[in-house]
Amino acid sequence: MNSSCHAPGITYSADGSKLLFSQDSNYVAVANVDPVAGTLTQAFSVSLPSPPANPNLFNSKSANAGGLAVTADGTTALVALNANNTVGVINLSTGTLTGQIPVGNAPNSIVVNGKYAYVTNEGGRPATTSDFTNLSDGTPIVVDSKNASATTGTVSVVDLTTGAVAHTIDVGLHPAGMTLDGGKLYVANSYSDTISVVDTKNNEVVHTIDVGVPLRDGAFGAGANGIAIANGTAYVTLGQSNAIAVIPLAGPDAHKVKGYIPTAYFPTSIAYDAAHNQLVVNDDKGVGAQGVLGSAHGVKGFNTHEEAGVVNLIPLPTERQLDQMTAQVIKNNHWDSKYVDVRHDRADRGRAPVAIPAHVGEPSLIKHVFLLIKENRTYDQILGDLPQGNGDPSLAVFGGNTPNQHALVTRFPLLDNVYAPSRQSADGHPWIVESGSFYSNDILSPDWIRSYPGGNSNDALTYTPKGFLWTAAQKRGLSVKLYGEWSGGYTIAKKPDGSSYSWADFYNTTLYKETNGAQGAAIVPDNSDTESTTVPSASAILDPHYPSFNLGIPDQYRADYWIQQFQQQDATFSVPNLTIIWLPDDHTNGTSTGYPLPANYQADNDLALGRMVEAISHSSVWGSSAIFVEEDDSQDGVDHVDGHRQPVYAISPYTAAPQAPGVGKVIHTTYTQENVNRTIEQILGLEPLTQFDLTASPMYDAFQNTPNLAPFDHVPANTALNIGPGNTPIAGTGPANFDTTSVASMSAVEKAWNVASDAMTKGKEGKPDSVDEDFLNHLVWYSATNWKRPYPGETEIQAPDAFVAAAANKKPTEDNDD
Question: What's the confidence (pLDDT) of residue 761?
Fold first, then answer.
């Protein structure tokens, strides 16, 4: 039986003899329960309908089944069909779907109360013609006109006798889990950090309980998503806080959080086990990515996809135990951090400027911040060969292809202990620009049925009411420019004959421009790429012609375009205070015909980065600039410390001085992407967006107040950028009759992988992480190690067939890497 389902999508039949769980592969599984043996056996499954035809659907096949409930008489099951905006009605006697009931947008959970069913709608009410809307999986969502985040959340009250919605209750944003108790319905509102208490007699909200982060003025992102009630006390799972809020429902402290119980990573649902007086808690991400990949060749490491969810059995705590647990939760979440007070009225604006101010709002020596976002590499893959850092040279498969990144850490700090909280691009980009990945964690992961918001603006339900890093800057009156990041899509002009421009065409155009016509050819006209976004705040500042994610365009093309734009800004004294750039080609495209090999993609990306840093360091704003470079995630590789560890660079005249000639200061401090965000916020005086950047410490040990204004000069690539399969130049980019010896001498397994790569990557060049990650990670490893080393955890080089077959049998997502 498949085990991929939403947290609320599991329930027992009325008599406990059957267990039902919804599947994103479009069915509800029903299993027989043997309580003596403690086993499940397949009983039957119920096929579910695909969503109605809609050209804007992310996935046209899956209804994205979610919450489940069974009527009291045990004859009928109800399932939330998230993509269909309906509730499916299942006859448990016949095992068939008998109908669908339209409800609100993106139904999540269901509870039954007599002849009524209550359904939470994360996307709120259906839109009217007068509403400002943004799409989520093809559905118009009523949204804020600036950040495009949902502005309504509702509960549909379904009359089961008529099969129609009898009433709609307005609750908080992104309502998720619910429970019934004593004539009241308790609704967890994930994006409002509240619990709505509904009187089921008149279906009105009678109380709203605040379960937000317990800090002055609040902090977004506690993430209430599930609730259980026992002995007059509510227990609320706070997914983003890795905790359970304990709330008495009566007495002098009624409806106030009394304390917290710690959980593992990301609790999503909760139930009370009366027989054992304990809470049963599902933790989606559990103990994190701790699956060790080891091999007979001595190579071992971790990957972000090796997650292990857990179920906690927690006895109800005594008063003393709750006090101890509360202290632990506060410590775990850094709610006691000295950095959480960011009130601007506490800032001393008369202080002398420093690189990183002590308080948000105080003057900084840095006025221009550049944030460059790359794709998917671990620390060990790039910098594991450096003896001064905590690296594993055996995993440094791209160390030799990245001379600029190695040169940067001879002068600027080597940060060898920085982590991405994300698993992949879909949650990686939100962690950077929204300081959290709330909907992606809670609903979309792990199978990304509804959307894949990896740097792209394509799902209104993934945006929070707190906005983005750029809106925080705009709120302070600062200027911002986006290059590629948060584009909602692009169009590229066709050739005169109607065909598409190839990687070789863009490469030759770049070569022509960089050599003033001595090499290459001006094939691609200027501004052939047009970008757009549906998020109003991003649309106003998104460069319309800088290419977003498209592996068919070399990063040199991006660098050429951006450097020209930047030099114009520099000449006109209009360099933005905050510039966010997506530089994506270190993602690679396998070993596909017409595209570079992984190592050559790395060389292209590395050279582009070096040239961009060089341009900034030779500009008039260098003396007041800081550049931060990070990966969106580190999923496409392994690391001997943790799969989430990534190469991060802090580059500025004000970064810490080298600890020795040619050796940048080695910093072992544990940091994450949120520390990078908080450092940017500290520099520019921005209000933190969520509890994650609020509680993060600025990266003080990476900076100093005495500048070194010497510029950085890029290092030329030490390998050709246009080398494809067979280690030969990509057709159309090299000599007319290049040597084919390498192609002819390829091993059978290499040829097989190249053929499979062509098939697996075809048409996906512009879709982040659209190739199965197991397939791509093996292919990249084999290619980078010249087809001589087995993948970590394995003893021989595998043929591609099993990976291709496994990818074909995975969940019905059309644009993800699971």
Answer: 82
